[in-house]
Automatic annotation (TrEMBL):
Residues 34-185 form the Thioredoxin domain. It comes from Christiangramia oceanisediminis. This is TlpA family protein disulfide reductase. One of its GO terms (molecular function) is oxidoreductase activity. PROSITE patterns: THIOREDOXIN_2. Keywords: Membrane, Transmembrane, Transmembrane helix.
Length: 186
């Protein structure tokens, strides 16, 4: 009987390893695991909050229209650096979509990708998301950088970084909605 149990354990381990090696199965598994372990992002303590260096940042929307980041000064801004190939990015997108549906007219959402507009637009259409995706034309203001994907910054109206989250999170959680409501009321 013990030999039989060991064989099943070995078979299960081989199947899991194969599933993680094969690209067609690896990505869905990664997305599932990221969704499973995503929690609400934590808020930076007020005394630890950095301010962005400036609002001098130029973006481009999918219609190739130039967008000045300075247009969003004195607003609550959510900046998410992402990519269509990034499993943790894909895992957190449904929570962003739900949040955007409720807060899209109250806060500014900027989804920044280094990919071509056609690639991000096709992804959004395929997933039925209406999140606003942009491409950077100039470097993001310090201390924001999107070298690790996904990275999300939530800026208060005075330009302080209230949340700086690297990795996937549940952006539609009750605790984050309370944080966002508080920032919007300030």
């Amino acid at each position: 009987m013990k030999l039989f149990k060991n064989q099943w354990t070995n078979i299960i381990m081989i199947v899991i390893i194969l599933a993680m090696i094969i690209p067609q199965t690896r990505k869905p598994i990664q997305i599932f695991v990221n969704k499973l372990i995503s929690f609400a992002p934590s808020v930076n303590d007020e005394e630890d909050r950095e301010k962005i260096a400036s609002y001098n940042w130029v973006l481009e929307d999918k219609r190739k229209k130039r967008i000045e980041f300075s247009e969003f000064e004195d607003e609550v801004v959510i900046v998410n650096f992402w990519a269509t190939w990034c499993a943790p990015c894909i895992a957190e997108m449904p929570s962003f979509q739900e949040l955007y549906q409720d807060y899209g007219d109250k806060a500014t959402f900027l989804f920044i990708s280094g990919e071509q507009h056609e690639t991000t637009d096709n992804f959004m259409k395929r997933k039925r998301y209406d999140l606003p995706s942009y491409k950077m034309l100039t470097k993001a203001p310090a201390p924001m950088d999107g070298r690790t994907l996904p990275t999300t910054y939530v800026l208060s109206k005075d330009g302080s970084i209230v949340v700086d989250k690297v990795g996937a999170a549940d952006w539609n959680s009750d605790s984050f909605r309370k944080t966002l409501d508080k920032l919007l009321a300030e």
